[in-house]
Amino acid sequence: MITVGAQETAAPSSDTAQPAPTLSVTTHEVLLDIVVTNGGQAVSGLKASDFTVLEDGKPQVVASLEEHKPMTVAMTAHAVEHPSLPPNTFTNYIPAENTNAYTVILMDALNTRLDDQMSVRLALIKYLKHMQPGGPVAIFERDTKMHMVQGFTSDPQVLAAAAESERNRPAMPNVVRATREEYLEYRINEVSMGFELLGRYLAAFPGRKNLIWFTGALPQTTTLAPMGDPFNDEFKLLEGDPHDLTAALTLSRVAVYPIDSRGLQAAPQYSAATNGPPAAGANIQFETGQAFQHLALDTIAETTGGLAYYNSNGLGAKITEIEDNGSSYYTLTYATTNQNWNGELRHIKAELKQAHGKLQYRQGYFAVDRTKQEQKQLDDLKNGKADGDSQIDETPAAKAREPASTNNSAAKSAQSSTAPADAKKPGPPREGFEEAMMLGAVPPTEIVFTARVAEGDKLQQLRKGDAWPQDNYLAADWKYKPFHTYTVEFAADAKTLQLTKGPDGLRHGSIAFVSVVYDPMAQNVNSRLTTKNLDIDEAQYQDMLLHGLTEHHEIAVPAKGSYFLRLGLHDTVNDRIGSFEVAVDQVKPEAGGAVAQNK
After folding, report:
1. How far apart (Å, rounded) are the C-alpha atoms in residues 27 and 348?
2. CA–CA separation, 404 vs 419, rounded Å?
3. Model confidence over 47-98: pLDDT tens digits?
4. Angle, helices 156-164/114-129, rounded to nearest 10 degrees
5. Is residue 593 part of a domain?
6. For labelling alongside 239, which of 18, 140, 455, 544 has CA 20 to 30 A away?
């Protein structure tokens, strides 16, 4: 949204000088990344006057056009380095190496046969070993969950080593569902959640993101709608999507390039392993099924501005083609003439006036009224609820404060005496913020924060009959084992928080801080949750921009064994997330002794 203010000064009357009237004009600027190719090669040198843009059939005036080209080796050499941090200080901040384009390689083990997974992995390793330094590349894998194999780097050796490592080997447990439809719905929901977490991670990076998605056959059922665009732009909101493929994404500029990992396919009856004549109609059945699968890939690609590849071998060559063309693009902006923000889909059509070429761009956006959304957020805060509250209430820390959850008196008793033997630390439900807090999950960067972690110098151990430390107790399996109390000092970058300004002139928000301790098997060992409800004036907000939003946690970690701290922030009003994890053995003893801790 762009707001243009103009002041018109009126001549003061002879009685009292009147304040000058202010004319405020608000318009919405639509940003469009366009790849232009001719014969498979990128077309460069175009100007704004070369493009025609229609929105729902009505001509729009192109306000600006910027051309982007792939990073050169010289540009890569000057890439921004990660900032140095004080000892035992960690962050999910990732410096943007460029504002041009990023390449994301996603290996989809959930929807790909094992033999095809191995073929793709070998092809990827071969490609990376011969790749030339260029724009930043990251590798992710989707098996039982979405996880990062290698973060963005321009070093081919680092990428190749990651692709060959154990990090790139899927772990796929058996998933049992009562019916075929339930199993297929499970798969499509897992794809949705994976895209959501990946989108939250990519939120920190400017420019276009080219997502190369190696996948097999996507699940197709009679009850599931086509996936469409899994990545929102800042105006988009899909109401009533049965699988919430876009419910929590606020990220734009992700172009999906699906690649069918099965490569060149032929009907099974033409295989040398097939004996006898083909069954009647077998070829038609194969071609029909294949056509529906390719249609799903085409739909996702075209909607996001990418391109689908199937029935083709030479996967490494396809990566090179996508990197080259996806990093050579134009960013076009226009101020839409339609000011009716009714939440409906608007279709975009871009063409070249004279030059020849094929255009790839996202096909539309949803006209969401941000003013109405902000008013709803204020109303929710006023009524004491926020969109993320139901999720936050189910986190381990929320349950941890009531180890005996049968009634309030039992909970109070548990804090002053021995907790019941069957008290367990529940794991976070796998949706939204809770999914982002799972061990090994992709670290979202919508909220950027740092955390200083320090180990207390006093070894502690509960004995039978001892009171459980309030809001800080180990799960039953670790209850009587020796532990250290760690302190976690959060500092959130306030510029990444979206605090809504109300008619009272104050900024309002609700931010949850969560610390979870996991063992290597992803069992929940301990957890803490605190929430800060904010109603601050402009001076307080400016101070927060300067110093950050801070919070303090103390959390017990068993003294023996390997453990991980998963730290996270959740803006429960706007459903924005930041999280990352730290191996506890990364926290080193500090000179002068550990920090003091409460007893």
Report:
1. 18
2. 7
3. 999 999 999 999 999 999 999 988 776 766 666 566 688 999 999 988 766 6
4. 160
5. no
6. 140
- Token digits for 547? 């110093």
Give me the pLDDT at residue 113, please.
82
Place of tokens 């894998």: 141
- Domain range enclosing 136: 73-269+281-324
Tell how strand 62-68 and strand 329-335 pair up: antiparallel
* Residue 146 Cα distances to 96, 188, 587, angstroms: 22, 13, 26
How many degrees, rounded to 5, is the angle at CA 483 between CA 482 and CA 489?
175
Q: Is 6 inside any structural domain?
A: no
**Which residues, 6+ apart, have CB-to-CB distance to 339 below 8 Å?**
27, 28
Q: Are 179 and 185 in contact (CB under 8 A)?
A: no
Give first-to-last CA distance, the chain, whole Å.
Answer: 50
In this structure, the answer to whether residues 392 and 513 fall within a common structural domain is yes
Question: Given phi > 0 = left and psi -120 to 50 = alpha, else beta, which region is 522?
Answer: left
In this predicted structure, what is the pLDDT of residue 218? 67
Q: Is the dihedral of CA 379, 384, 389, 390 positive or negative?
A: negative
Threshold 0.85, pTM exceeds:
no
Q: Where are the alpha helices (DSSP H) in 351-491?
A: 370-382, 389-392, 396-400, 408-416, 433-436
Structural domains counted in the chain = 3
Question: Are 400 and 493 members of one domain?
Answer: yes
Q: Taking phi first (over 0 means left), then psi (-120 to 50 degrees means alpha), and beta for anything else, what does residue 542 get? A: alpha
